[in-house]
Amino acid sequence: MDTSRRQTGIQQLLAAEQEAQHIVNEARNAVGYICLNILGVIYMDLIPFSSMKGLVSVIMFSCDTGKTARLKQAKEEAEKEIAGYRAQMEAEFQRKLAQSSGDSGANVKRLEQETEEKIHHLSSQSADISDDVVQMLLKHVTTVKN
């Protein structure tokens, strides 16, 4: 008995679905659907085809105008940000370029000073250990091994 009730219920659902499909097909023949997405809310409505053509073009134009304006604004903001970043990088590059090759006389003086400091450092280190090296060499030269 439970199975027959289920079968009847399924048959009724199929019949209702067929009837709904028939109604939808008739409505599509008489009118067209219009679907609007306004600020994330979707509106659907049936309107006659005769008035749909002008309405759809107006809606599409107004949607495209808003979207185009937002895209244009975003593009302009991005271009400004890119221009600022490019200017910052160019200024940094010019600064580094001026530091490395700006005044060759100053670079030569700086390199000469660094070289003198390194020579002085190495001379002092060699003076500190020269006595030890001489003693070690004398020990190895004078020691006889069989």
UniProtKB/TrEMBL annotation:
<dbReference type="Pfam" id="PF03179">
    <property type="entry name" value="V-ATPase_G"/>
</dbReference>
<dbReference type="InterPro" id="IPR005124">
    <property type="entry name" value="V-ATPase_G"/>
</dbReference>
<dbReference type="GO" id="GO:0046961">
    <property type="term" value="F:proton-transporting ATPase activity, rotational mechanism"/>
</dbReference>
<feature type="coiled-coil region">
    <location>
        <begin position="68"/>
        <end position="95"/>
    </location>
</feature>
<keyword id="KW-0375">Hydrogen ion transport</keyword>
<keyword id="KW-0406">Ion transport</keyword>
<comment type="similarity">
    <text>Belongs to the V-ATPase G subunit family.</text>
</comment>
<feature type="compositionally biased region" description="Basic and acidic residues">
    <location>
        <begin position="109"/>
        <end position="120"/>
    </location>
</feature>
<feature type="region of interest" description="Disordered">
    <location>
        <begin position="97"/>
        <end position="124"/>
    </location>
</feature>
<dbReference type="GO" id="GO:0000221">
    <property type="term" value="C:vacuolar proton-transporting V-type ATPase, V1 domain"/>
</dbReference>
<dbReference type="GO" id="GO:0016887">
    <property type="term" value="F:ATP hydrolysis activity"/>
</dbReference>
<comment type="function">
    <text>Catalytic subunit of the peripheral V1 complex of vacuolar ATPase (V-ATPase). V-ATPase is responsible for acidifying a variety of intracellular compartments in eukaryotic cells.</text>
</comment>
<keyword id="KW-0175">Coiled coil</keyword>
<protein>
    <recommendedName>
        <fullName>V-type proton ATPase subunit G</fullName>
    </recommendedName>
</protein>
<keyword id="KW-0813">Transport</keyword>
